[in-house]
Amino acid sequence: MRISRPRSVLLAGAVAVTLSATALPAAFAAPSSTAVISEVYGGGGNSGATLTRDFVELANAGSAAYDLSGFSVQYLPGAPSAGSQWQVSPLTGAVAPGGRYLVAQAAGTGGTVGLPAPDATGTVAMAAASGTVALVSGTAPLTCKTAADCASDTRVVDLVGYGSAVVREGSGPAAGASATASVARAASLADTDDNAADLSAGAPTPVNAAGETSGGGEDPGPDNPTEPGTVRVHDIQGTTRVSPLDGQAVTGVPGIVTAVRTTGSRGFWIQDPSPDADPRTSEGVLVYTGSAAPTVSVGDSVLVSGTVDEYYPSATTQSVTEITAPRITVLSSGNALPAPVVLDAAAVPGGYLPSAGGGSIDALPLEPAKYALDLYESLEGTRVEAADTRVTGATSSYGEVWVTVEPKQNPTRRGGTLYSSYTDQNTGRIKVMSLDSTRPVPVANVGDVLSGTTTGVLDYDSFGGYSLQATRLGTLTDRHLKREVTRKQKRDELAVSTYNVENLDALDDQGKFDTLAKGVAVNLASPDIVSLEEIQDDNGAVNDGTVGSEATLKRFTDAIVAAGGPRYSWRYVAPQDGKDGGEPGGNIRNVFLFNPARVSFVDRAGGDATTAVKAVRTRKGVTLSASPARISPLDESWSDSRKPLVGEFRFRGEPVFVIGNHFTSKGGDQPLHGRYQAPARSSETKRVKQAAEVNTFVKSLLAADKSARVITLGDLNDFAFSPTMSALTAGKALKPLINTLPANERYSYVYEGNSQTLDHILTSPGIRRFDYDVVHINAEFADQASDHDPQIVRVRADGPGHGHHGHH
Question: pLDDT above 70 covers what percent of the chain?
């Protein structure tokens, strides 16, 4: 078994987004007892070299797997100039305890021996004699150019300077690197944070995660057989998720080549045209060729020899069964392909996945007639086709689109598929990618249709699970999905909105500001108050102590005026540097915009990053001890997370309390499609505590004045049916407005083809008359300014009545 290697450069880049909540390691001022850079070689392909490529080898001296998801290896020239930039190679997966992880870099024109199949591939042309390599938690380029500055950057896990490198650890750089020599650690992997002492020069010895050494992945091997061996593909695949032959050598496995992948993580699929009678055993399998381009063509009849391996894209996903280090005999070409299996509503069962009480389902016998993911697993590597599939997740920047093969399953009003509970999974969702570089996935929005048949091979990856690797795509039928525009609030209605603007900072391009501004001014019809999530400090991810957001907010509010909106004022509480999670250096925070022509802000001194706001009982009702201010910012539930922003407003003479929230993300939760079932939602524990803190504060306002009008809103990173929402609404202190909409409209975010709700607006019992709307302008579209749709509530200023909700 191996964990991790990049399926494609594109997907490697996606990890930083999905796992941005990963805890950061200490600076390299503390020597590493786990992940280290074990060998560096910059002479690959040089004159006189044996190896054709540069490489960086990582090792894990620890006793547990070291997760590299979202990490990178970065390179800086040995004598950096003012214009020198760190060059980034993203990583995926993990280093096994005691194991190695190989990052291939640029190839030269010299050398005769290839590297073993790399676990990650970069494009950096490293210098043979002098340079610096860093293992970094994150994929943003380092900015340090001196040893001292790099030592103080907490993202640096380990660093090796060699030759005459200025940036190095300890007394000096490692000596002796050349066109024919690498610098490497001793077998003990000892790290004393002194490159000169810890690494010595010698012949390069690259080792990958599979333990293969030079040439192992590209060795043509002994004479290949011309007659089939005794093992068939269905013997390799077996009746569970894991091959009974995992780790074993196989010889002369017969099959027809059905598809070829020539980019990213290369390989091809074969399928046995003579299937067995067991529906649990797949007749297709991936042949992984690593960095080498496949030399076969679709329709070739082949015999494949190699080693069976279960490849885990990450520690919590299911695996892909494959044949590695292959030796191939082509017997004939131009053969007919096995007929594809049809995926449709009749074929896909109603159950989603078996449960193992939270444990691994790897060893459970497949039940393809009972569970959808067992059906897909029984077809892993097999040709499949789907006809007239409705798009449920818009085309991403990675060229992927989500469709459903069950068109009647939980449809939303606008063509998506609604995610409505933990127990009722949408079994028809599947991701489509194209294997034909001349025919990429079309740019599609939710509700569009891939008309006709889409045909390809069923694969599995960590970014969404089962995917149809298309050799033929259906044609796009555009259903012309429109961005919604909400109605203007009436004179006596206070309009309050929430909008996650996705890491907005003053260094972003003007186009992002303009699109987000149009969303506020036009689509949201210029609300009186806008609670923003993900406003960063003025220089974004640059980590230099800046915490203010004035330049970011000036640009945003200027853009709103240019889009026809009002001149908004703003209030926020700046975070302590590096204390609120999010992108390192970004100092993410919640911000209130408000239109002073319609609503006034009650400023009360005393609100800062660490002071907790209190409800103050007065003869005229309840007020805040400080405004703007934060809820219990020092409570451990908010550590490394965004603190709620509280403000007191006045509309038509009456106080309104607004609480802007951005709860901790779902990063680290086990995937719906993963090997552990039911999946653990580890991030939920912290959100439930955060929700309880907000609930306690709302109750303190209501204890002082039971008719106090409180609006709690923001990106809660959880569903209407979640324990987080139960904690937030406990004691009926707050009413979640999403539940007042028709069921097929209860969403503001689309993830892996599921339309779901992470953003919410909730109101206290003192708000009786309201009109609530989710305004769909982003989440369902391939072209989006943010991945979240904004929401708005319009609250009537007059007396009691009955709540209702409106439509467009």
Answer: 94
143/25 Cα distance (integer angstroms)? 18
With beta carbons less than 8 A apart as the criterion, state whether 689 and 527 touch. Answer: no
User: H-helix or E-strand containing 374?
Assistant: helix 372-378
- Taking the C-alpha atoms of residue 700 and residue 786, their distance in angstroms, rounded to an integer, is 34
> If DSSP codes are grouped into helix, strand and coil, which group holds residue 344?
coil
Report whether 380 contacts 284 (CB < 8 A).
yes
CB contact set of 103 (below 8 Å; sequence gap of 6+): 55, 56, 57, 58, 73, 89, 91, 118, 119, 120, 121, 122
For residues 494-508, give the mean pLDDT.
96
Going through 262-362 in order, the beta strands assigned E by DSSP cover 266-271, 284-290, 301-312, 320-332, 341-342
How far apart are alpha carbons 413 and 411 in whole angstroms?
7
Exposed / middle / buried, residue 222 (Cβ in 10 Å: 0-12, 13-18, 19+): exposed
What is the structure's pLDDT at 48?
A: 84
Task: State residue 366's pLDDT score.
Answer: 98
Cα 710 from Cα 613, distance rounded (Å): 15
**Average pLDDT of the chain to the nearest whole number:** 91
Predicted confidence at residue 318, as pLDDT, reads 94
Token pair for 288? 């992984």
Q: Does residue 84 have a pLDDT over 60?
A: yes
In sequence order, the β-bridge partners of residue 657 are 648, 710
Judged by DSSP in three states, 697 sits in helix
Sorted by sequence, the CB contacts under 8 Å of residue 631 that are 6+ apart come out as: 612, 613, 643, 644, 646, 659, 693, 694, 697
b/e burial code for range 394-406 (CB count within 10 A of at least 16 → b) = bbbeebbbbbbbb
Token pair recorded at residue 654: 């009456």
Q: How far apart are CA 35 and CA 209, in angstroms?
A: 13
CA separation, residue 225 to residues 221, 256, 306, 307 (Å): 11, 16, 12, 15
Nearest to 317 by CA among 460, 117, 173: 460
pLDDT at 26: 33
**How confident is the model at residue 30, as a pLDDT?**
60
Tell me the backbone φ, ψ of residue 159, rounded to 5 degrees. -150, 135
Pairing relationship of beta strands 629-630 and 645-651 according to DSSP bridges: antiparallel
Nearest 5°: CA angle at 563, between 601 and 565?
A: 30
| Region for residue 357 given its phi and psi (left: phi exceeds 0; alpha: psi -120 to 50; beta: otherwise) | left
808 pLDDT higher than 70: no
Neighbours of 27 (CB within 10 A): 15
CA-based R_g, the chain, Å: 28
Residue found by looking up tokens 């490692």 in the block: 174
φ, ψ (nearest 5 deg) of residue 711: -115, 115
Q: What are the tens digits of pLDDT across the range 139-171?
A: 999 999 999 999 999 999 999 999 999 999 998
In tens, the pLDDT along 426-457 reads 999 999 999 998 999 999 999 999 999 999 99
For residue 267, CA distances in Å to 260, 291, 441, 461 come to: 6, 9, 20, 14
Would strands 2-3 and 301-312 be described as parallel, antiparallel, or unpaired? Answer: parallel
Q: What is the pLDDT of residue 271?
A: 98
Could you give the CA distance from residue 697 to residue 603 in angstroms, rounded to a whole number?
19
- What is the residue-wise DSSP string for 70-112? T-EEEEEESS--TT---EEEE--SEEPTT-EEEEEEEE-S--S
Q: How far is CA 170 from CA 43, 127, 135, in A?
A: 24, 21, 16
Question: Is the pLDDT score of 172 beyond 60?
Answer: yes
Token pair 């660093």 is at which residue? 159
Is the CB of residue 369 less than 8 Å from the CB of residue 349? yes
In total, the chain counts a number of residues equal to 808
